[in-house]
Design a protein that fits this description.
The protein is α+β, with helices and mostly antiparallel strands and about 450 residues long. The longest helix is centred in the middle third of the chain and has 51 residues. Helices cover about 60% and strands about 10% of the residues.
Length: about 450
């Protein structure tokens, strides 16, 4: 629902008999305790952080103060659903790495973090007092009128002061005032609903980061990049199909023809040449089958990523344990990218790590497919850019693309292609490999829902 759509229910004839007036009242009522708690929290963090900053203890409190708008904004997006059926998406992006430092660095660099802090300050100092005043005035007026007979009965003197404006001195007059309060309640429900709609519009405007021209161009670049990935996958599948249905079938026919020619029992040296030619055709047939499998394995197409990774593990020269929990099918580009990343990582483990066992485990976490390949090898692997050393030889974690090394030796240039392929999908490749092991390759790729699979 767009912002203008928030006002549409107020013009409907069934507004008063729907749940919207009650939802609007609940939206405004819940603002009061939440706003009071927010004000108290901000004041305590500001005072304590400023007082203790001289001994450095207050610096974390000031940092929490800066980030306090994030949880409040998250709660406000949920509370907004009371009056606005269209969800307000979270503008925060996923950190490029793991750990608290990467999360803090990402959040402090985002414009939405500072907008949410500004919203928290506005909410704590201005918005909730105004809402409390509006809701309180409605409850005071309607409640005071409807409570007149009860006040008269409780007083025992046969009269009651109505809203401190006049005195009702008889029960007929008191019940007439009660009826006026009941009739006034739906009348005041409209301005209360308008206030809730205006408050929702303001919340949506403040908590959604407007798209700039650069943001729009970046989004279009992301969309065009995904279109290129899809086109690349389609072209690769076409090449695979042509090789399978064309060149492979011709080689099979050639091998059979040469075999039939040998059965005719030709004299030497023609028989030896036919045998040699048939052997070469058989070797070429094996190679082209391996090439087709390398372009796009059939098991990945038919049964999905977990089965394809199991197939890699079965063909690995070292034992590999696979625990991959993927709900349903993913985008073909995602499945293919992760498949070849796991294949390259296991190939490096088998060639360079000296490991006796490896494992592949993963699943979907917060909308991202996370896969870790771990081995019990000697460790000391590094991701280096353009052949230069960088990364995790000291036990840290590195990310990016480049040529890997183990103990100063190359572990293959395929890692650069893996990292580049994952980056096109919006993913990343992380490596942790302290000396002595274990070595862990961590792949993270955005994971669209199964219905988006093309």
């Amino acid at each position: 629902m767009h912002s203008s759509g928030l006002w549409q229910p107020l013009r409907r004839r069934d507004y008063m008999i729907s749940a919207r007036p009650w939802r609007a009242a609940l939206y405004l009522l819940t603002s009061v305790p939440l706003g009071a708690a927010t004000l108290l929290t901000l004041v305590l963090l500001a005072v304590a952080g400023s007082a203790l900053a001289v001994v450095l203890v207050g610096l974390p409190l000031l940092l929490v103060l800066v980030l306090s708008g994030i949880p409040l904004a998250s709660l406000e997006r949920r509370r907004l659903r009371l009056v606005d059926s269209t969800p307000l998406t979270d503008p925060h992006r996923e950190p490029p790495g793991t750990g608290l430092a990467a999360w803090l660095r990402t959040r402090l660099q985002e414009r939405s973090t500072w907008r949410e802090l500004g919203y928290a300050l506005l909410f704590a100092t201005v918005l909730w007092p105004l809402e409390a005043l509006a809701v309180g005035a409605m409850l005071l007026v309607c409640g005071g009128l409807m409570a007149t007979p009860a006040v008269m009965a409780a007083g025992g003197d046969g009269e009651a002061k109505v809203l401190k404006l006049w005195i009702a001195d008889s029960y007929p007059e008191a019940f007439a005032v009660l009826a006026a309060g009941v009739l006034l309640l739906p009348v005041l429900a409209y301005p209360l609903g308008a206030l809730a709609a205006g408050r929702a519009v303001l919340t949506r405007q403040l908590l959604s980061v407007p798209e700039s021209g650069a943001d729009s161009r970046l989004q279009e670049l992301d969309r065009s990049r995904m279109r290129l990935v899809d086109a690349f996958e389609a072209e690769r599948r076409r090449i695979e199909r042509d090789l399978h249905d064309g060149a492979q079938q011709r080689l099979v026919a050639l091998s059979m023809t040469l075999g039939l020619a040998r059965l005719e029992g030709p004299a030497e040296p023609l028989g030896g040449l036919l045998a040699k030619a048939q052997g070469e055709a058989d070797v070429a047939l094996v190679e082209i089958r391996e090439l087709i499998r390398g372009i796009h394995p059939q098991v990945l197409t038919d049964r999905g990523l977990p089965a394809a990774v199991e197939d890699i593990a079965d063909r690995s020269p070292i034992p590999v344990d696979v625990r991959l929990d993927v709900p349903g099918r993913l985008l073909e580009a995602v499945e293919s990218g992760v498949y070849f990343a796991v294949s390259e990582a296991l190939a490096n483990v088998a060639k360079h790590s000296g490991a006796t066992r490896a494992s592949v485990r993963g699943g979907v976490v917060s909308g991202r497919l996370v896969v870790e390949i771990e081995d019990d090898g000697q460790g000391g692997a590094r991701l280096t850019a353009d052949g230069g050393e960088a990364g995790a030889a000291d036990g840290g974690t590195s990310s990016g693309s480049g040529t890997g090394t183990v103990g100063g030796a190359r572990v293959g240039t395929g890692l650069q292609g893996v990292a580049d392929r994952l980056s096109v999908l919006g993913g990343s490749l992380l490596l942790s490999s302290p000396p002595g092991g274990p070595t862990v390759f961590r792949l993270e790729v955005p994971c669209p829902p199964a219905r988006s699979r093309t």
